[in-house]
Amino acid sequence: MQSTQFDYFPILMQLGLAVGFVVGTIIISNFLGPKRSSANKDKNFECGIESVGNARIPFSVKYFLVAILFVLFDVEVIFLYPWAVNFKELGVDGMIKMVIFMVLLLVGFFYIIKKKALEWE
Known about the structure:
Strand order of the largest sheet: 1-2
Order of helices and strands: HEEHHH
Shape: flat
Largest sheet: 2 strands, antiparallel
């Protein structure tokens, strides 16, 4: 099957329309939006609560570690769904590979518990 450069025209056209829409929206909103600013409007505001202090308070690394571990184990669980759907077709070979996968996952989980990465202070 031969492909020509003309076959890529719809992709380039869609890319051009998407970029043009984004740039056009930004430019139009810049012209149409109000340009009045005051000390009260420029003040930080969140959820109806007055902000107090500096917004750049350092978070504990454990917070980010728990978030990354949650995403990691969540993605690992996603791999179980296609395996469960095709369980019969994969046979014993698929079962062995999934057992190896789960053992590696559990080794990582026990390593995390041993290093006390999930304990809050």
